Amino acid sequence: MSFRLRTAKGKLKIEHSILDDLRPVLERLVAREDIRSIIPGVIRPVRDAKGPVKIRITVPVQNGWKAIALANGARQELFVSTPMSEEGLAAAIKEAIAK
User: Fold this and answer.
1) What's the pTM?
2) Which of 23, 58, 64, 86 is deepest in the core (most CB within 10 A)?
């Protein structure tokens, strides 16, 4: 395992399980220098989470942003620790989903 991948794994805090399709997107996000960590939260089933992964930034929190991810028929809260602006994070998320 490369050093970069190992540090990326340490930045993705796994306290809850992660939606299957969301995990690779989060792993691409934490590989970035400007993301300190991502803490996935509670997963709840929802009807409108079909199709490709969607991540919506919702509110600023003390050290970054809270977001909601929709994938695999469920929604999952994400806490993203980053100094990035909302626009910067939105662009990074879009890029990570597109890869």
Assistant:
1) 0.86
2) 64
